[in-house]
Design a protein that fits this description.
single chain, about 140 residues, alpha/beta, 4-stranded mixed β-sheet, 4 helices, globular
Length: about 140
Amino acid sequence: MYELPQRDDVTEVVIDAGGPGPPMVDRLRRSLPKGIRLTPVMLTGGRSSGSLANGYRSIPRREVITGLIQLIGTGALVAPAGLDDWHRFAHEMAELSGQSTHPATSRTHDDLVIAAGLAAWAAFHHTPGAPAFGYVDKPIL
């Protein structure tokens, strides 16, 4: 199992900017203490990540979801016993569609899955020598 090294040099907040949009990103930029890096992310249906204007990143939704599934499946990401809302996270994971990585119905939420996936993406993306965290071009379930 791969463990990311401990890092104390960077504090980063990664936000799914597709929902709240630029007004919330601007508000966070004004209110976060100095020394905290804000990375707004636009989740896409594409196949590759990229940099966008104003510090935004584009990341394929499938890359975030499949990377998270890989971490859970290999035991590299585990939850402590009794973690609050673990049942909600597990339900969200179970409700993802294997073809699109979107929730199976429009009433199903995926907020916890996206938050965990973005945190994992950031940890791997900013850690030299970390194994690949990327797009898997096949059904996820």
